[in-house]
Amino acid sequence: MIDFLIQPWSWWFSGLVIAAIMFILLFFGKSFGFSANLRTICAASGAGKRVEFFNFDWKKQIWNIVFLVGAVIGGFVASNFLTPEGYAPAISENTINDLSELGFGAPESMQPSELFSSTYFTDIKVLLLLALGGLLVGFGARYAGGCTSGHAISGISDLQIPSIIAVVGFFIGGLIMTFFIFPLIFG
Amino acid sequence: MKFLKYLLVGGLFGIVMTKSEAISWYRIQEMFRFQDFHMYGIIGTAVVLGAIGVALIKKFKMRDVEGNPILFMPKNKSIARYLIGGTIFGLGWALSGACPGPMVVNIGYGYYMFAVVFIFAVAGTWLYGAVKHKLPH
Prior knowledge:
The complex is a heterodimer of chains A (187) and B (137).
Chain A lengths: L1 H5 L4 H17 L8 H9 L17 H20 L11 H9 L11 H4 L7 H21 L3 H10 L3 H26 L1
Chain B lengths: L3 H16 L5 H8 L5 H22 L20 H17 L3 H10 L4 H18 L6
Helix pairs in contact in B: 1-5, 2-4, 5-6
């Protein structure tokens, strides 16, 4: 059992667990949508006094903030108890080659140290890139009315056309960043 | 206590995001370069099982634990907001290698730089709220 948990989870088992999470939330009378938390955090910080979009009863969303806290704990548990020391994702050779042309070494841990090593807390370029990434995700998620959980998983499961359009958008943006902007930033 | 169950489900979410490697910037790059089936397999499996389950919930008019019907709200019809918003989201997803859930899972994992990403994601949502009325929807 523990061996099964410690090895990387297969795509089908992971997909099954994600679907299960969506159904558990539905049976609790909630819906699976993580980026709603970003709006809730704005509202809880008092943004509703100045911006109408944040003037709603955010207390009904506390369950989702608790889910977020659980996700942080889950990451901690998975990192400390369910992942071998020095583990790195076994990504495709083609990706390793493409990324090496952009200055990224082959994976030695879950994330590239070139972007996420804590030594970059004082590196302006890396900080700006990460800040921009976050800003685009937060702005785009709310503009599109949801993120990967709300649109790609919940919305498409319900065969909603708007969610399919949103996911097409996710890929348009992702491909532009990967193939046109990355060579300018990292090349 | 009534929130404990959400803490546990959130914990499961954090574990599956980590163990599936969906939190990894490398996996997101691999996905956008179409160089491995992994991420497509994860999302595809979740969507196929999700669609079957949602159809069953509708067919049998299932109820939640409190006895209320499980309803699915149709999203507002539009193309602009989903396509433009989605594209902006995708730019950020590829750059930071994380959508909102994996951002916080990464903080728990020990990648504290994701706190920067997450704080700016909140700022991005705030910015959207502030300029919402000027945008095509």
